[in-house]
Structures are given as structure tokens and as C-alpha cells.
Amino acid sequence: MEITISSITEIGAVNFAPATEIEEIIQNVRTIVTTPIYSVPLDRMFGVDPELVDLPIPVLQAKLTAKIVAAVQKYEPRAQVTAVTYDGDAKEGIVKPTVRIRLKE
Predict the structure, then answer these.
(1) 19 in helix, strand or coil?
(2) CA 68 to CA 3: how far, in whole Å?
């Protein structure tokens, strides 16, 4: 089963009792991708590196994709990233990742 998590820009409200395991995994992936590293006190490496924002868009996308895949692999082992695509406005420097995951059996 593959799931697309689109327009990841902010974490939103945290549901501490998701109704299903799928909801929990989606929320966890969204949290990983929207959390800047060094911002979690007891795990400074949790999240994705915000220092990439000043890179040219193609370089940013390549490096951010690698960081997203590695972070999801480390912090949400029930999911495997199958694709990361980007929406946004290149002229404005806006990049919004869409992450496609497959649930591991």
C-alpha cells in the first residue's frame, strides 16, 4: 500500500491517539519532514536540515530528498519512502515536498 503525503509545509495539530496505524505513520512522517534538526532537545538530529534553503533549487531538491529518505528510514521504520516530488514557485524560491511512502509489512 502506497500513501502520498502532499503539501508538507507545517506540522499542524498533533493527534496523540490516532484511530489507525496508517494515520500514526502519516503523522510521524509529516512530523519528521517539518521538524528542523537541532530543534528537539533530547534528539538534536531528529528532522531535516533547514540550512539547505539557500541552495539553488535543483541542488536543494536533490539534497533534501536524500535527507528526507534518511530521516524517515531512521525515525519511522514502518514506512519506506518511494518518491519525493516538489511543488512551488521557483521564482519565489518556494519548495513544497510531497512524500510518497510504502508501508512495510
Answers:
(1) coil
(2) 15
The pTM score is 0.86
Please list the alpha-helical segments (H only) found in 1-105. 21-34, 57-75
For 35-70, write each residue's pLDDT tens digit.
Answer: 999 999 999 999 988 888 888 888 999 999 999 999
The C-alpha atoms of residue 79 and residue 98 are separated, in whole angstroms, by 15
